[in-house]
Amino acid sequence: MNCIAIDDEPRALDIIKNYASKVPFLDVKETFTNSLKAIEYLQNNKVDLLFLDIEMPNLSGMNFLRALEKQPMVIFTTAYSEFAVDSFEFNVIDYLLKPIDFNRFVKSTNKALKQFNLLQFGSNENLPVQTDSKKSDSYILVKSGTKIHKIVKDEIQYIKSDSNYVYFYTQTERIISVYTMKEVLKLLADDNFIRVHKSYIISVSQIELIEKHQLTIGQNKIPIGYTCREHFFSKINCK
Q: How far apart, in Å, are the Cα atoms of 156 and each of 72, 136, 172, 221, 233?
């Protein structure tokens, strides 16, 4: 995938170039500290993926995207977690917090490759993901209002229940629907998903840190309920 990176800090650009050089499917064509020059480059060159800082002088990352006629896939890079909610407006691939961890970088770019292949070939072939499950079991269909969303299971981080609604959270979007938590578990029908609290179902593969009373997925701290604790730790074989 052809990539460019935009950041007003040269050191941040060096880190992205270094990380990208270790990922075989990434080709960083240019880096920019000047966002206006990056816009000119995008107008004349094919770019599949954009690494974009949010807090920049003159033109912020979000205003940069608003200025584009056609938006490539985007991974936001920033030191400020408070921008995470606003980033949903742009349907970005991911949101990386500085200092960026290499393993987190790889996970993010794998997600971009998956989306790239879907756009190019209409399938998930040749993606660096597990393939031991049946194709028909790799996604769920979720009704939200008058729309039906196809959600790839591997992209689900967690599901949260709030009153009469449930929210399906992926790294790039939040989808609201009307289900009970029992119905969600039945819909998922996958051992990778575990109920850890009366209000939360999580994807085990998305967990980054487990503590006694909570776990971390991305930038989110999710409580482990007392009644779910024994079942959760037994399922992950960690008592």
A: 22, 16, 10, 16, 20
pLDDT digits (tens, 9 = 90+) for 11-63: 999 999 999 999 888 999 999 998 889 999 999 999 999 999 888 777 777 78
pTM of the model: 0.51
Q: Tell which of 60, 95, 121 closes a domain.
A: 121
Residues 44 and 152 in one domain: no
Using N-to-C axis directions, what is the helix angle for 102-121 and 10-21, rounded to 10°?
70
Counting DSSP H helices and E strands in the chain, the numbers are 6, 15
Place of tokens 């960690």: 238
Residue-wise burial string across 107-131, b where 16 or more C-beta atoms lie within 10 A, e elsewhere:
ebbbbbbbbbbeeeeeebeebeeee
Q: Quote the CA–CA distance of 225 and 239 in Å, as a whole number.
A: 15
Q: Residue holding tokens 């949010």?
A: 54
pLDDT tens figures, 183-221? 999 999 888 999 999 999 999 999 999 988 999 998 899
Residue type, position 44, single letter: N
